[in-house]
Amino acid sequence: MTDDENSARTLRVDSLARVEGEGGLRVEIVGDELRDVELRIYEPPRFFEAFLRGRKYTEPPDITARICGICPVAYQMSACNAIESLCGVTVDGPLADLRRLLYCGEWIESHTLHIYFLHAPDFLGYDGAIEMANNQREHIQRGLDLKRIGNQLVALIGGRPIHPVNVRLGGFYRVPIEEELRAFLPQLERARDLALSTVRWVASLPTPEFRHDGELVALRSPGEYPITGGRLVSTAGLDIGPSEFTGHVVEDHRAHSTARHARLRERGAYLVGPMARFALNFADLSPGARSAAAAVGLGPDERNPFRSIVIRAVEVLHACEEALAIIERYRQPEEPARPVEPRAGVGFGWTEAPRGVLWHRYALDHEGTILDVRIVPPTAQNQPSIEGDLFQFVAAHLDLADGELARHAEQIIRNYDPCISCATHFLDLTVHRT
Amino acid sequence: MTEPRVVIIGVGNPWRGDDGAGWVAADLAAARLSPGADIVHSDGEPARLIDAWEDADLAIVVDAVHSGAASGRIHRLDAAGVVARPASRPTGSHALGVVDAVRLGAAVGRLPRRLVVFGIEVADTGPGRGLTPDVARAAQTVAHSIEHEAGTSRPGRLGGFRDA
Question: Are B153 and B37 within 8 A, CB to CB?
Fold first, then answer.
């Protein structure tokens, strides 16, 4: 749409499709110069932190699961970690294994949704998965099959495929018997094959040249790929525990967004999520995942965010292999959960949601009533970095027509799979030229 | 001869007022059909919807719709009718929905043998439980229609509830 034929041009794209959540992006160009890029978030904040106050310490795993329909397990696990650490309870052995198994299901489900139905159409020039399905039926079928097995794994451990109901502080309400899990092995073996095919397929997609040079931040846990905990490390030497998070990360409000923006106090924008996990933990991938990555030329030095689709596929393969290993060694624990008694104080916890590290903090009184909560989701942490990528790309491609520019900008945002439900939301794109 | 498999899928969010119409209609139908069809509560995510209906002889999906028509108005479409609808860019927070699921299922050959989609026009989808009166009446009517539709496929085996 043209505001003024000589000087000003405003392009509106009414919805930014294929991103979870609702929100928008505004690009301001003056003459030949890019002035500003803003991820504009307009859905009201969800106030989860506020309405957890006054609730019982046992409730956050169920309540915070409702923040996101795609990664509810991440919320449950970060909440459990934070409150259990305050209450002096360590969940290990088969119960910890079951938590990782549940989380593997979520990684498979969430990553597969993004790879096949949200991200791949970008690379092949389709408007969406439905248009792609007409010509790429075999791939969409593989995506559906793989996602289904992820759903089934979440349902097997969590009781149902969305917002699992079987998670509690200290463990679970019910743990599966060994035969139940063993019966699922053939499905997981099939998922592993599908995941390997996925890695090969997405690695063959045409990828634009691009480089993200920001600091990469992820959990690291000795001897395992980080999913359910660890220390927070970075490519610039960060190495902290969960209670130190707010000493290093600051959040601020921006006028254009109702989600907070997180930055490292010393160094500014940083990136969490698959590319960061992969770069910082390559050696701890399962053998099959590591060799599949190597076979498609993907290593820990990968910094092209357009290749994040391949990294997600490698992580799906890892999740399948780890799930297989967990089921092979599983012995049903005697009790489904450790007792967790309340303690007054402040507890901190984090896990690796599919989109990156998810940090929770809970303050409790001696009866276990929640006094205060803070939750920092991955998308809030990535927003400044996504804006940085957009600025870099748009500045280098000002000659593109608005429609093309908008299309590429959407793809850049999707590189990070922003689950805006967690960070409140987006969907609306405006390019403003004067 | 095996009994035909019938699945009733309610789509929506019961915590957002009239958006819960699909779940309510499915539950009312379950009471009428007992023992009968499988009842599925869905948030509309396409891959899970396709899972829910893929092997069914008859799948009936009920969802809330907002086209600007009077609240409580009922739409009925079969698979061909859904696929023939003009494409629209998704604007909801789930990005894809029932229409996309049907189109996707059709493109990859994963539809039930017969599919019927009911849409109930909504009035209020604000936070909270409960349907507005027109929508509640429409849910009753749809439940009755489901019974009629399913009757022609005569479900025989014991069904159950599940989430998808």
Answer: no
Q: Which fold has domain B6-163?
A: Rossmann fold (3.40.50)
Of A15, A17, A147, the CB nearest to B47: A147
Which of B87, B90, B109 lies nearest to residue A15, judging by beta carbons?
B90
- Exposure b/e, A341-359, CB count within 10 A at least 16 = b: ebbeeebbbbbbbbbbbbb
Q: What CA–CA distance (Å, rounded) separates A311 from B160? A: 39
Enumerate the β-bridge partners of residue A36.
A28
User: Shortest CA distance to B123 belongs to which of B21, B13, B12, B10?
Assistant: B21
Compute the distance between CA of residue A330 and CA of residue A98 in angstroms, rounded to an integer. 8
Tokens 């759903």 sit on residue: A151
Q: Residue A375 carries which side chain, given as an amino acid letter?
A: I
Which phi and psi angles does A222 have, rounded to 5°? -55, 130
pLDDT tens for each residue of A358-382: 999 999 999 999 999 999 989 889 9
- How would DSSP label each residue in B148-160? HHHHTT---S---
Give the pairing type, strands A24-30 and A8-13. unpaired
> In terms of CA atoms, which chain A residue is nearest residue B51?
A148
Residue A255's pLDDT is 67
- Let me know how many helices (H) and strands (E) chain A has, helices first: 16, 16
**Alpha-carbon span A279 to A299, nearest angstrom:** 8
Question: Does A16 reach chain B within 8 Å, measured CB to CB?
Answer: no
DSSP strand pairing (A345-353 vs A270-271): unpaired
DSSP single-letter state for residue A43: S
Of B39, B53, B48, B44, the C-alpha closest to B8 is B39
**B123 part of contact set with chain A, CB < 8 Å:** no
Query: Model confidence at B86, in pLDDT bands (50, 70, 90)?
Result: low
Rounded Cα distance between B10 and B24, Å, is: 7
Q: Residue written as tokens 């910082």?
A: A280
- Judged by CB atoms closer than 8 Å, whether chains meet at A133 and B100 is answered as no
DSSP one-letter code for A44:
P
pLDDT value at B91 more than 50: no
Instruction: Kindly calculate the radius of gyration of chain A based on its CA atoms and give it in whole angstroms.
Output: 21
Q: What is the pLDDT of residues A128-167, one digit of tens each?
A: 888 899 899 999 999 999 999 999 999 999 998 778 899 9
- Kindly tell me the sign of the dihedral angle through the C-alpha atoms of A188, A198, A114, A301: positive
Q: Please report the ipTM that was assigned to this predicted complex.
A: 0.76
The dihedral of CA A298, A307, A102, B48: what is its sign?
negative
Lowest mean per-residue pLDDT among A104-113, A400-409, B84-93: B84-93
Task: Write the pLDDT tens digit of every residue in B110-142.
Answer: 999 999 999 999 998 887 889 999 999 999 999
Query: What are the residue ranges spanned by the domains of chain B?
Result: 6-163
Q: Do A144 and B110 touch (CB under 8 A)?
A: yes
**Which position has the token pair 């600051």?**
A250
pLDDT at residue A40, as a whole number: 66
